[in-house]
Write a structure and sequence with these properties.
single chain; about 240 residues; alpha/beta; six-stranded mixed β-sheet; five-stranded mixed β-sheet; 9 helices; elongated; binds S-adenosyl-L-homocysteine
Length: about 240
Amino acid sequence: MDEHTKLNSIRFVSLGPGDPELITVKGLKALQEADCIFCPETVTRQGEGLSRAADIMLELGIDSRHFYRFSLPMDKRREKALEAYDKVCVEAANLWKKGLKVCLVAEGDAGLYSSVHYVYEKLDSEGIPVEHIAGIPAFIAAGACGGLHIVSQEERLMVVPGVVTADEIGNFVGNGHAVVIMKLSRCKEEIKRCLQLHPEYDYHYFENVGLPNEVCLQETEQIETAAFPYFSLLIVRPKAS
Ligand code: SAH
């Protein structure tokens, strides 16, 4: 890749978990230099467009006139989201071909359970230069928020996307893993079962890490009655000896 092409890559900027200060210097510079920033939002039943990514960028002082907000359907079917992303691919490629500096943003790191990576792969396969700017994933920020040594010594780390059973969690932890469970809203009942089955583990529950409404719980009784919203995750560890 020559230097000119490299400068003009379409950049996938990782925004970090929500605290605007947890973006990297490199990510911030890319946003400040951008002409167009594609930013996902979800539209509520009342027709209001919500975008945590846009909120982070506004707090960073990024000019909202550069935002290209696109809506991601709340529909669970992946095809619907891919249709929206296909349109983003075409529009982003057209702007890039005009010589504009184009960014796409993602919360946390853009390469960790991040559906926007589909756009990265598609543009790449079309020969358009793409660049992924790394960011802090929510579970790393959660560990910091809880003062945790997420994995220590010989332990292994298992990250699962919410499709998990209490028995599987038991097997992982029993075999020396610390377990991070993302997309917690999908497995509320199994988590409650795990809390009952394995009181001998350490549980760390997090909601909205890095935001003013951040929640960080360690008491089983409190976790049992927690809300388990979309932006929540759990870290399960063998009990500290
Ligand atoms: N790319 C993101 C993960 C996206 S998947 C990253 O690197 O962290 C979405 C899941 O991430 C959510 O269901 C939730 O489990 C977790 N998540 C993202 N942001 C979060 C936050 N601020 N607080 C708690 N969990 C969060």
